[in-house]
Amino acid sequence: MPDDSRLRLIRALGDTLDGLDVALCAFDDSDCTIAWNRTFFKFFPEHDGYVHEGEPYEANLRRFYNQRLDAQELPNIERYITAGVERHRAQTRPYSFEHRGLRVHVSSLPIDGVGRVRVWRAEALPVQNTHPAQAAPAGADIHEPGYLRSPVIESTELFDRIPDGLMICAEDQRIQWVNQPFMQMYNLSDRAVAAGKAFDEVYRHAWSVEGQGDMAPFYDGLSILQEHMRFAGAPFEVPLPRSRWSRVIAKQGSDGTVFYAHVDITEFKRQQRLLAQAERSARDSEAQLREKSILLEATLENMDQGVAKISATGVVELCNRRALELLELPAELMESKPTLMNVLAYLRARGEFKGASQDIQDMLLHSSGGIDQQQVYDRPRPDGRILEVQTVPIKGGGALRTFTDVTQRKQAEQQIRHVAEHDGLTGLLNRTAFLQALQAAATDVHRLGRGFAVLYVDLDGFKPVNDRYGHAVGDQLLVWVARQLTQAAREDDLVARLGGDEFALLQRGVSDRESAYRLADRLVQALGRPTQIEAHALQIGASVGIVLSPSDGAEAEELLRKADSAMYLAKATGRGCARIYGT
Ligand SMILES: Nc1nc2c(ncn2[C@@H]2O[C@H](COP(=O)(O)OP(=O)(O)OP(=O)(O)O)[C@@H](O)[C@H]2O)c(=O)[nH]1
User: Which PROSITE patterns match (predicted)?
Assistant: First the structure.
């Protein structure tokens, strides 16, 4: 037994064929009856009331022959039945026979999943008699001669109700009849307009009524239509006005009649177009993506910055050529997609972080790559270069790390800072830098619990050197003074040239005046010693003013001013000596 959906299909086919006065009886693979239509009983009234589901074909034939054979022939019935069953199973070609005064044409079609469907129709009559208008009126007696003279349609109502267009053509391809949906599809106001015409004429008519603007689809459609109607046959698809489309499917009738179904596939075509567009744009964006990724890869490989991508699980997924160079990482290690922990362990074992601050070392020790905000730090490398390491979190986890060689930039910054903070002639701190250092020391006094002294040094008798030997000699003498001061000071003391022939010294860790005075006295002695510059024997002197912090103040400017005034007192009391502020 075929499945339910196939059975339903066969029954629907039977109903449709009823509309065409075609009888149907279907049998399963074991030749048992499974479906039949009303027309079947019109042709074979002997079965009416007897045929039933599951009835073997043999029983059907027996009834048929019982009705047909005369007394003389009846003894041969078993032979006829056996031959009939054989025929039924193997039948490939239609044949005709007379039955109850009619000439009937029978075809037997094997159908997959069903079995075999037999269809009978009365022999075709000349074309002019097949127009539905000439069909016999409904309810006419089937035994009346001429009733089945219309093989086409008894009632058009059924075909007007189906959603697809239907066009019935005679053997010469002239249209005999069209249904209502066909008329709508091809803009026909009257069925009679199509009768006797070829399909291409109807197609031209449809475009002449509605087609506007771009007529290219019409010419395309016309050539498709003509090609298929003349040579290739259906199915084919033609464009209609207002961007509609029709798919034409043909079904050959046994008498040369051809049934054409015209299915509106506008929506299907629209979907197809959208799909093609989507595919095209997907292809385009795929190509764009591919291009972008090639570009990105080339950029990554050729950029001056090292780049590494760390996944959410801490794996170094990407590491460009420059990163390998800057960190001197072996390519094989990075190709193995190691974790960041592994890479850091490798670098640590190689002594990479020895010069880095404790903060950086601690951070690297605990880094698995996961961060929630941007991080930047400078990492000194064992070879003296400095890398700026910047890490930015990636949406969805993981991080992107860049390595920039900032050695030159740092050196330039260092130079600028040095120039800004030092005296160009002697290389000592300048006044601004000294005041800053002084302020920092004053602020630290309480924290460290240690005071300091400031010694203000002004040369005695420097001007005459300039006047007598010139500025160049004076300059060299100033450099000599700077050296004397630096030698007299301790390593963590600061020496500065405040301007002209004025110098200052910050003496750290001093709480008593005597210590400061001793240093001042040493300076006076050192600077009072004769020296030789460019074969000139020179001798100058120095006057020194001393202040102590915190006892004399905690502000840099104030301390310097007080030291300056102490120095003036020293000058006033005969030069070549030191005076402590307030004494
Ligand atoms: N060669 C040289 N001379 C400088 C420089 N800056 C300032 N001077 C000179 O240093 C001298 C400072 O003047 P004074 O302080 O009167 O010189 P002094 O002879 O030591 O006088 P007293 O301080 O009163 O003992 C001036 O002649 C300035 O022109 C410098 O960079 N190079």
Answer: GGDEF
Domain co-membership, 360 together with 474: no
Pocket flag, ligand 1, residue 352 (CB < 6 Å): no
* CA 467 to ligand 1 centroid distance, Å: 10
Measured in Å, residue 465 CA sits from the centre of ligand 1 at 9
Structural domain of 456: 422-580
pTM (2 decimals)?
Answer: 0.49
512 alpha carbon to ligand 1 midpoint, in Å?
A: 32
Tens-place pLDDT, residues 507-517: 999 989 999 99
Q: Does the CB atom of residue 466 touch ligand 1 within 6 A? A: yes
The CA R_g of the chain, rounded to the nearest whole Å, is 57
Task: Please name the residues in contact with 365: beta carbons below 8 A apart, sequence gap of 6 or more.
Answer: 344
Do residues 524 and 578 make contact, with C-beta atoms less than 8 angstroms apart? yes
ipTM (interface pTM): 0.95
Residues 504/456, Cβ–Cβ less than 8 Å: yes
Helix axes of 57-68 and 77-90: crossing angle, nearest 10 degrees = 130
| Residue 414 forms part of a structural domain | no
Burial readout 323-339 (b: 16 or more C-beta within 10 A, e: otherwise) = bbebbebeeeebeeebb
Q: Phi and psi dihedrals of 328, rounded to 5?
A: 50, 50
Task: Evaluate: CB of 500 within 6 angstroms of ligand 1.
Answer: yes
For residue 130, tell me if it sits in a domain. no
**445 within domain boundaries:** yes
